[in-house]
C-alpha cells in the first residue's frame, strides 16, 4: 500500500521497535492513492463500509494480502 518499497533493514527496525499499525500508517511517507479502490469482504467485513479510518486502512491491507496470496494481479485488485 505504500508508494515505495522498504528495505529489509527498515522493516526489521519497525518490528524491533514494536511499531503498531496506527504509527505505521501515520508515519508512512506516501500512501498509494489507488488503495481506496480496494473493495471486498475479508473475514465477513466489507472494507469500504468501515467508518474508522485506521480500521479501513487495515481492512484494505488485509484484502490486498488476501488477494495477492491467491495469485491475483495487482492491477485487478486496484480496480482502476
SSE topology sketch:
Blueprint: H1 8-16, H2 21-27, E1 41-42, E2 45-46, H3 53-69, H4 74-77
The overall strand count is 2
How many helices? The count is: 4
- Gyration radius, to the nearest Å? 13 Å
Based on secondary structure, the structural category is mainly alpha
Which outline best applies? globular
Low-confidence blocks of residues = none
Mean pLDDT: 81
The proportion of residues forming helix, as a percent range, comes to: 40-55%
Series of secondary-structure elements, N-terminal to C-terminal: HHEEHH
DSSP strand content: 5-15%
Task: Tell me about this structure.
By secondary structure, this protein is mainly alpha-helical. Helices cover 46% and strands 5% of the residues. The chain contains 4 helices and 2 strands. The protein has helices at 8-16, 21-27, 53-69, 74-77, and strands at 41-42, 45-46. A two-stranded antiparallel sheet has the order 1-2. A hairpin with a 2-residue loop joins strand 1 (41-42) and strand 2 (45-46). The radius of gyration is 13 Å and the shape is globular. It starts with 7 loop residues before the first helix and ends with a helix.
Give a brief outline of the structure.
By secondary structure, the protein is mainly α. It is built from four helices and two strands; from the N terminus they run ααββαα.
List keywords for this structure.
80 residues, mainly alpha, two-stranded antiparallel sheet, 5% strand
Amino acid at each position: 500500500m505504500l508508494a515505495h518499497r522498504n528495505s529489509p533493514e527498515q522493516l526489521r527496525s519497525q518490528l524491533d521497535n514494536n511499531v503498531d499499525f496506527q504509527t505505521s500508517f501515520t508515519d508512512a511517507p506516501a500512501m498509494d492513492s489507488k488503495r481506496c479502490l480496494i473493495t471486498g469482504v475479508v473475514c465477513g467485513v466489507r472494507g469500504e463500509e468501515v467508518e474508522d479510518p485506521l480500521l479501513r486502512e487495515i481492512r484494505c491491507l488485509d484484502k490486498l494480502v488476501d488477494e495477492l496470496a491467491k495469485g491475483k494481479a495487482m492491477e485487478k485488485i486496484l480496480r482502476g
